[in-house]
Amino acid sequence: MGFRVIYHAQVCPECGSRDVSTQDVPTGDGITETAYVCDNCHLAWPMACISDLDGPS
Ligand SMILES: [Zn+2]
Predict the structure, then answer these.
(1) What is residue 7's predicted lDDT score, i.e. its pLDDT?
(2) Cα-to-centroid distance, 57 and ligand 1 (Å)
(3) Contact indicator for 10, 23 with CB cutoff of 8 Å
(4) Domain residues for 23?
(5) In a domain, 31, yes or no
């Protein structure tokens, strides 16, 4: 079997802390995106790139 990425584990990729919370962060286009934020080192990284929004108009 190949590699398996376990995003739902919510472990910080930087420090490995499990003190991870979710937070809505602005992307700059007036859109907010849910991201993970590490409570230990405050690194933020995006959730899976799944968008429920309509495509560009
Ligand atoms: Zn961290």
Answers:
(1) 53
(2) 37
(3) no
(4) 9-46
(5) yes
Question: Could you tell me if 19 and 43 are in contact, meaning their C-beta atoms sit under 8 angstroms apart?
Answer: no
Q: Does residue 28 belong to any structural domain of this protein?
A: yes
How many angstroms is it from 28 CA to the middle of ligand 1? Answer: 24
Query: Separation of 7 CA from ligand 1 center, angstroms?
Result: 14
Output the CA 3–ligand 1 centroid distance in Å.
22
Structure tokens at 40: 């230990």
Taking the centre of ligand 1 as the mean of its atom positions, its distance from the CA of residue 23, in whole angstroms, is 14
52 falls within a domain? no
Yes or no: say if 21 and 39 are a contact pair by the CB < 8 Å rule.
yes
Ordered per-residue pLDDT tens for the chain, 57 residues: 666 655 556 889 899 999 999 988 888 889 888 888 999 999 988 876 545 555 555
pTM for the model stands at 0.58
